[in-house]
Amino acid sequence: MNITRDQVIQWLNVLAETLTQNSDYLTRLDSDIGDGDHGANMKRGFQAVVTKLPTVADKDIGTIFKTVGMTLVSTVGGASGPLYGTMFMQLGTSTAGKMELTLADWTQALEAGAGGIVMRGKAQPGDKTMVDALTPALAAIKQAGAEQKSLCEALKLCAEAAAKGRDETIPLVAHKGRASYLGERSAGHQDPGATSTHLMLQAAADVFCK
Description:
The structure is a single chain. By secondary structure, this protein is mostly helical. The protein has one domain (3-208): Alpha Horseshoe (Serine Threonine Protein Phosphatase 5, Tetratricopeptide repeat), CATH 1.25.40. Helix 2 (23-33) packs antiparallel against helix 9 (192-208) and helix 4 (61-75) runs antiparallel to helix 5 (80-94). It has helices at residues 5-21, 23-33, 38-56, 61-75, 80-94, 103-121, 131-146, 151-167, 192-208; strands at 3-4, 100-101. It starts with a strand and ends with a helix. The longest helix has 19 residues, at 38-56. The protein has a two-stranded antiparallel ribbon with strand order 1-2.
């Protein structure tokens, strides 16, 4: 079982819908420790992505991901645009020319995306950012691959690890972004970036497992 190009397109559409549905929730989280714009920014960015998808639906997966990345960089404000944009551009580079993805391909792409985020945002695990959801998610899917689990099982474990990482941001003190200005007062709040990262990986598990 591999991930097809059509499933990638479907995932991006579902993700856009999910982010729209959760826009107020993400904004509420961001209002507690940030600028209060994460939900609106993600919604706007992925709605722009949806309008671009028909123009690349017949292209390879790498081209699709690069188009997503460039669209996010040009339409999303705050830190989200550059970070998510960089992630998708790295996904695109990793999957260039591919019309379908194996578990190993997807894992390699996620690793490239995570690396792009760390390079761009300079965040490390424990800084109370999206990296706190992405790092355990990547570790989980790599472990699943090493144990020769199915693609579907690996994706579910990846999403579960992201959810756990998201929840574990609550007691952390932020060291990056606007939340870091609050110092100790940032503890006790769930990180919005880690939350949107979980939504992204959960949507991938939901769509790619169909």
